[in-house]
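Q&A log
Question type: sequence-to-structure
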Amino acid sequence: MRYVILGAGAIGCAIGGRLFEHGHDVVLVARGDHLAALASEGLELRDPERTVKLAIATAPTPAAADFRNGDVAVLTSKTQHSELLLTELAACAPPSTPVVCAQNGVENERLALRRFSNVQAMCVFMPATHLKPGVVEIPVSPLTGLLDLGRYPTGVDDVSGQVAADLNASSFGSVPDKNVMARKYLKLLSNLGNALQAACGTRSEDPAAEELWRLAREEGSRCFEAAGIEVADPDLDAERRASLGSLRPVGGHDLSLGSSWQSLARRTGNIEADWLNGEIVLLGRLHGVATPVNELLRSTANRMARDRTAPGSIAAKDLLDQL
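Response status: OK
Response body:
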């Protein structure tokens, strides 16, 4: 089973790097300066215990990865890039190709299922930072992350079991979960703070930021209830996450900063807020639930991304006053 990692940034390189390190055939599909660094110097994977350099095969597009029977596509891009990658994948891979959606949000699986018959939803709990081309930092060890998965929309199959087995043998914790989407919806509630962190910096000891995050989660919960969406038990999920352990330093920056913060820091020009806070806004509009907090966070994060504004440039109190 060869793993083709589509959109190999922080999460994709961590998954692909560990699988490769443990003897699996891997291709990293990336772009720009990051692709150039991976191709010329290899992937530099750092954790609290060690740094490794891995000479993993790379490709600029799914077609260049030369898909064949038995391959598994692992989609690890942010959702704003999924449509293009899936369109390119559908042009070069058979529709029976398993596609694993290892991403935040709940839209990627629906996008993939339009094109591929076997879609696996993966709930990713793995802190990872990618700020420099060719370098990814993971502030936990010896377990790299928790990657539970199941077939979308429900169930598990042989692919779920094989991928979980390969991940478990490659420094991850992975459990086949027939109802993994309930976990992904629960995680979405916590991801509603990503745009807030990107805009305002860390929430620690900032009452205005804590209030905005609380209100955003309350809106999300009301929308899930109105839409009849099942959400996993938070206590059981917290128990599962506790098995990963605590963050430890790697390098000289704060490794608790999330993927949206990293998007602003790298000046990418785009951010995933439309598929995190925007998912709640969409549900609210469909089911008659007011979502002013998530709309404010969505629009603020998008404006900052378009303007290449540095992360943490806005005071949470100013956003609360706008609200």
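Response note: Residues 207-227 form the longest helix (21 residues).
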